[in-house]
Design a protein that fits this description.
- It is a single chain.
- The protein is mostly helical.
- The chain contains one helix and no strands.
- It has a domain of 45 residues.
- The chain starts with a helix and ends in a 36-residue tail after the last helix.
């Protein structure tokens, strides 16, 4: 009794699909793990810290009084 060619074709397609899916899964998993590792060792910037830069300040006109941060003093005197 010989095995029909249709079954052989289905079997080879199933085996090929399983091999390809496992390779894609392993590659995706390793990329994800490497991404997590590189992000955890990366230098983190605290967004709440104040960056002091004189070049980024726009000097307002007609103001002489400044608060400690360099902005015009708008307090009522």
């Amino acid at each position: 009794m010989s095995f029909p060619k249709q079954h052989i074709k289905k079997l080879t397609l199933a085996i090929t699909k399983a091999i390809v899916m496992s390779v894609v899964f392993v590659v995706g998993l390793t990329i994800g793990i490497l991404n997590i590792i590189t992000k955890s060792t990366e230098h983190k910037v605290n967004a709440k810290t104040r960056i002091v830069s004189d070049q980024s300040k726009i000097v307002p006109k007609n103001t002489n009084d400044r608060d400690p941060f360099g902005y015009p003093d708008r307090s009522i005197k």
